[in-house]
Design goal:
Chain A is mainly beta and about 110 residues long. Chain A is built from no helices and eleven strands. Classes of the chains: A mainly beta (about 110), B mainly beta (about 120).
Chain lengths: ~110, ~120
């Protein structure tokens, strides 16, 4: 079945550590996105990529980094510079020709700072 | 980023009753797409219904329907014959039509609780 796989489902980070969230899709979508979800704030865009080896900052990119070396993969690194990383992170993918159908989402990663 | 406003943080409805969620948005675009996503307790985002701005007819998907008022920039969701499985957070989202980056902008969400 085609879809998006995010791993791990739960992740714990110590202060000062970098952690990487995985996102893989087998939908052959060109574009991939990372969103952060906090209570009462909806989904906010962190980074997005529309093509391999290219990505753009979203609205809240500070403290995060990404790479897009393969079409199927778009990992997100939460760096120590992110002061409040505890949140739920959602990865999504989309295709320009299918933009009227929105995105397909992964099941999310819950990151907690301990 | 486009502004999408959902003014109702929480709503409660009796099973089999109808509930309407409000959404307004701010844009200078003429062509765009609007969506309602459902996020149940599993936190998986599920597309409920979508609307293309150039279509005047309101979209309907089974028990879900929208009231799209383009001039008022309003896009409300009506859930008819509410079921316990409708309990979830609902997000309204906006996407420009003529844009190279086809980003989705989301509202803050409305938590819907269906009571037995």
């Amino acid at each position: 079945d085609g879809g998006i796989t995010q791993s791990p489902k739960y992740l714990f980070r110590k202060e000062g550590q970098n952690v990487t969230l995985s996102c893989e899709q087998n939908l052959n979508h060109d574009a991939m996105y990372w969103y952060r979800q906090d209570p009462g704030q909806g989904l906010r865009l962190i980074y997005y990529s529309q093509i391999v080896n290219d990505f753009q900052k979203g609205d809240i990119a500070e403290g995060y980094s990404v790479s897009r070396e393969k079409k199927e993969s778009f990992p997100l690194t939460v760096t120590s510079a992110q002061k409040n990383p505890t949140a739920f992170y959602l990865c999504a993918s989309g295709q320009e020709s299918l933009r009227n159908y929105g995105y397909t989402f992964g099941s999310g990663t819950r990151l907690t700072v301990v | 980023a486009q502004t999408v406003t959902q003014s109702q943080p929480e709503m409660s409805v009796q099973e089999a009753e109808t509930v309407t969620l409000s959404c307004t948005y701010d844009t200078s675009e003429n062509n765009y797409y609007l969506f309602w996503y459902k996020q149940p307790p599993s936190r998986q985002m599920i597309l409920v219904i979508r609307q293309e701005a150039y279509k005047q007819q309101n979209a309907t998907e089974n028990r879900f329907s929208v009231n799209f008022q383009k001039a008022a920039k309003s896009f409300s969701l009506k859930i008819s014959d509410s079921q316990l499985g409708d309990t979830a957070m609902y997000f309204c989202a906006f996407m420009k039509h003529w844009t190279i980056d086809y980003k989705l902008s989301f509202g803050a969400g409305t938590t819907v609780t269906v009571r037995a």
